[in-house]
Amino acid sequence: MISEKMKGYVANSSVIRAMFEEGKQMASIYGADHVYDFSLGNPNVPAPDAVRDAIVDIVTKEDPVLVHGYMSNSGFEDVRTAVAGHLNGLHGTKYTSENIVMIVGAAGGMNVFFKTLLNPGDEVVTFNPFFVEYRAYVGNFDGKLIEVPTDRETFEPDPQALAAAITPKTKAVILNSPNNPTGVVYSEEVIREIARLLCEKQKEFGTSIFIFSDEPYREIVYGDYEVPWIPNFYRNTVVGYSYSKSLSLPGERIGYLVLPSEIDDAEDMISAANVANRILGFVNAPSLQQRVVARCLDEKTDVAFYAENRQMLMDGLREAGYTFVEPQGAFYLWLKSPEPDEKAFVAKCKEKQILIVPGTSFGCAGWTRVAYCVSHETVRNSLPGFREVAASYGLS
Ligand code: PLP
After folding, report:
1. Which parts of the chain are beta strand (E)?
2. Which mutation among 245, 282, 331, 357 tests ligand 1's pocket best, with the greatest number of atoms within 8 A of CB?
3. Atom of ligand 1 lying closest to residue 250 CA
4. Which of 171, 239, 270, 292 could, after both became Cys, cross-link 258 (CB 3.0–4.6 A)?
């Protein structure tokens, strides 16, 4: 009965989600303390207290008709004004409420953006490995996702390779920094070069090529890494932001799109995004959560918690002889499989109750993703298992 298109999506349904379910099952057999589930990017750090306080205050003191009612499809005017002002303070921009659309998480925002932009057959380029749902988000509107491989040692993006993939059908380029699954943060130098080359391509083809900057991990960076505000480097940039990771609210489904007035066809793009939010069935982002995040704009997640996990994991894996990309941001460690078939390595880890995700789930064989947004104990207690698996390959 199901549609041909859905048959494909169901067949390729998320390995990550399946592992998450398997993790729960394993926990009922071995006990939760003996399962080391690094499969899902579900933050273990609780939302800041300010979130709970805002919820209580809003539901007890604000007008319930307003708090729980419909509003403009782009979101509450005062919330969008507050978000715009916050961004202006951070990035020296001049956004107003007009430039902000409140969205149902980054996933909802990307669907709104592609609904707004794509005709069937239009191309969207991204760097591989990538958050695999991009394939569905682009496919939902009959677009074609084009993958450009990153450097296979550093996983840094190659701007020239990106430029070579641009065609007259390219409507957008998705950038995701800090990156899921690699933890790489794109430097200002790389962003500048990508911007320069895309400007050249726009001129060469006489087209508009948008960067969609997918930024759920913007604030989660380690050491001195900075995450450039891409609209300040490339005019045709739309930003998708989410509070799923930055305030640990993934189930609440709240974020925003920034559509700067400088983008091509800004007025049409902004009103189309508003309509897309409605007709995709979102109608608007969750009303209570809009009001909550507007009160928590300066709140931050506990990056030190993730930093501690990162360090513990890196020390343990290095000592065991593994090769990996040192995470610069997000909460993922990109771990090289000791054998070419990373699924066999993943299976060996599973024998030690360690759940990690094969790289093929991100379009990149031979590697795996370890999501360390888990408790310190989970990281610490997983290390003997990781060491035993390493020893079975004769590492170190
Ligand atoms: N983009 C990337 C790179 C992600 O890692 C995720 C979630 O893990 C999303 C988008 C979707 O985020 P949200 O929960 O805000 O929809």
Report:
1. 36-37, 100-103, 123-128, 144-149, 170-175, 210-214, 237-242, 255-258, 324-325, 332-336, 354-355, 357-358, 367-371
2. 245
3. 14
4. 239
Query: 250 C-alpha vs ligand 1 centroid, how far in Å?
Result: 9
Q: Which amino acid is at 77?
A: E
pLDDT per residue over 245-293, tens digit each? Answer: 999 999 999 999 999 999 999 999 999 999 999 999 999 999 999 999 9
Distance CA 159, CA 90 (A): 27
Residue 91 Cα to ligand 1 midpoint, Å, equals 23
Determine the Cα–Cα distance for residues 146 and 363; give it in Å rounded to an integer. Answer: 11
pLDDT at 14: 64
Q: Is the CB of 107 inside a 6 Å radius of any atom of ligand 1?
A: yes
The confidence score (pLDDT) of residue 22 equals 82
User: Which residue has the CA at smallest separation from atom 12 of ligand 1?
Assistant: 106
Which of the four pLDDT bands, split at 50, 70 and 90, describes residue 9?
confident
